[in-house]
Amino acid sequence: MNLSTWRERGFLQNLAVNFGLVAVAAILFTLSFPSFLSMWGWWPLAYVALVPVFVLVHRATWTEVFFYGFLYGLTTYALHNYWLTGFHPLALIAVPLIYATYFLVFFPLLKLATALLPRYGYVLQFAIWIAYEFFRTQFFLGYSYGIIGYTQYLFLPLVRLSNLTGIWGVSMIVVFPGVYLGNALRDGWSGFRGFVRNHRVAPVVWALALAASLVYGFATRVDYSDSPTWRAALIQQNSDPWQGGPVAYQRSLDISLRLSEQALAEDPTVDVVVWSETSVVPPIDYHFRYRTNRDSFGIVEQLLAFLETQEVPYVIGNSSARLLRDENGGLERVDYNAVIVYEDGEFGEPYRKTHLVPFTEHFPYRRQLPWLYDLLMENGSNHWGKGTEYTVFELDGVRFSTPICFEDTFGYIGREFVSRGAEVLVNLTNDLWSKSVAASMQHMQMAVFRATETQRSMVRSTNGGITTIIDPNGRIVDLYPPFQEGYLIGDVPVYTEGRTVYVAWGDWLAWVMVAAAAGGLLAAVVVAIVRRSR
To answer: Pick from 38, 100, 111, 117: most CB atoms within 10 A?
Structure first.
């Protein structure tokens, strides 16, 4: 066998190993979350899910590492968010491509860390990963699905660390074993013992950090047994208003009315009835005021006639519309994804969603990219106006706020509500479009952290998703089966004592890790330049 044949065989073997590492990494990552194989997810897998990633980063050459980063991001998010096809076929292309692009940049940074710091580069890689997780939740493309700390939502003593650090402290505990083991195995089993011998302090420090986190989690478990409760009826109509048109809107309303009557007949002590996001689509105030559409006004009129007979207040997901002046001085109708509260015969001022879903609800670059804006509108995007107020409602002495849909995936929003006095968080969601239990569970697992970060109860009323009550300790008190028509009645603890570090300081730990990653890379580059110049 000639030399070129040996080289070709070696190249193909190396290629097969690298592709295998991508596949194993993507599968481990996906299965550690709720997935197509497990409704609850296999959270212990998260501690080793990143091992193949760091082995791959070391094995890949500088010309290959960009490609493997792109391939890892594409494969991982196609598997993890496979349910995006229910939203729109283009979404399953767009989101994996976005994360493929992120990792195309991110993998070379991980490789640069060990190239500049051959002995302790893994510590810098650890900081870079946490900084990446934080920054991908920011700005227009902010997206929280796939932050690896969320896999631990059932491991409550660790989850409660989030009231001190936000999700980032939990992610740090989960990420480090993967970084460490991936670097220990970067040269195969032959180098494993030597690496562990030379870096034996690091796993001890991690074990102590984990132990301290668990002790903290147990110590900060709140006792709300003496707190008042708020008895809520959460309506899950399992009827998708996304189908559009008066027939779908009327069907959704009819189901909501019927289920509400059944819930109140079963339990007359209910304090509040909660309907899901956009459970009523036609803007109630707008159509009652202007009556521009007979079908829409008929739906609004029917709802108002029903509410006038009710003695219990209602929290309703509804689009809100206003006539505002446009750039030319004319009037333009602006629609908002909103929540309204009905009590004592009238509606109060609505809460208008402040953090919109990129592309489908919000696209701020219409002037710069008109062709993309037109493409989005042609493919069913429904762009909303952006709210500006973090509204706190009050019913019977209970102060609450209503993050809408994926707003409960961002820690800063719950923090803003609680800082303004919210005692309960009430999330209104429509996850019915996904037709996926995994998608609904991935959404719900993030809501657990909103409860523990703020030490406030989280109530979720969903249209087909995971309707549930979560206590201030992050415990799932009750849960209604997904994609079934019905309602959940339960007592929501109204715990109001104390103010967590996260509510006071926000994402302080994430910014520390950003500074460590940026400062570490900069310092390593400077040291390398100085050494070379000498």
So the answer is: 111
